[in-house]
Amino acid sequence: MAMEKTVINLCNVLKSSSSVRVHAHWQPISDATFNMHNDSPQLAEMFDLSPCHPVKEYGVEDFKVFLPSSTVAVGDLWTLDPNRIVPFLYQFHPGARADLGNGEEGAYACLRACSSDYAEITFRLHAEFTLGNVAHQEPQQENAEEVSEPESEATFIPSQYVGQMFVNLKRGTIRAFSLVLPARNSNVDINACGGADMVFVPRMELLATDETDQDEIAWETVITAEKACRSLELKFYPFAKIDWLPIERAVERAKATHRPIHAILVWGCLDDESC
User: What does the alpha-carbon distance between residue 150 and residue 248 come to, in Å, rounded to a whole number?
Assistant: First the structure.
């Protein structure tokens, strides 16, 4: 007989009037496929990025955007409003937006763990940044009059953001918060002047910790971080359920089962927004 899930109401759990100090870290591009961001002084300046606000204070109320609108149990998922999360991304750059030009938009959260005193929410968000306009200079023939094409937008497209929020249920406060660009190579697309490149940004994250809340957490109900991330991935990409195989193993299975091979060749990852 299946055990009934224990549900919890997190809708109004954040009731403290205290503030949360969030630190932003954003390292420059350290690797690229085509090194497009250094093709011109304008592009080099545009993609030489750092946090707009290295430290910023948020009210506890601001974090309600990550809470579910109804009761949930550990392992449950719910939809977040990405446009209400964008103000957090403004700490990086004022050009943040959740409406992608192309790609899988949205944000989802999962209750990963819970006890009588604490809850951990894991979430995933897709967003991008408009960095401004830059004039594209075409190569000119000798003695030709210099003419520039109309200005075009430049975009910075992270593969995804993953985050965690630890809530102190007794105090109604945020124990810890993070919103992180996974440090996997080729984790950002950049687009400018009609060109595109896949680049690596070693660190881009928002972090906050309540130094006064250092109690040990003994979770009563919990799922693994891997299971929570997998559930969030499937909300964005149902095709991730497919059992993809490297070509060598696919050939072996095709021979054994006498079935054809369906092959997909991608430049980058298939299950995020960096390709």
Answer: 48
**Distance of alpha carbon 72 from its chain centroid, rounded?**
23
Mean pLDDT for 46-75 is 96
**Type of residue found at 105:** E
The three-state secondary structure class of 197 is strand
Count of all residues that appear for the chain in the document: 275
Cα–Cα distance for residue pair 231/244, rounded to 1 Å? 17
Count of CB atoms situated within 10 Å of the CB of 66: 26
Angle at 110 between CA 107 and CA 113, to 5 degrees: 150
Contact 109, 68 (CB under 8 A): yes
Which of the four pLDDT bands, split at 50, 70 and 90, describes residue 128? very high
Amino acid identity at 203: R
DSSP 8-state assignment for residue 241: G
Contacts of 13 (CB under 8 A, 6+ apart): 67, 119, 167, 169, 172
Is the confidence at residue 243, as pLDDT, over 80?
no
Q: What is the pTM of this model?
A: 0.85
Q: What are phi and psi of 75, to 5 degrees?
A: 100, -15
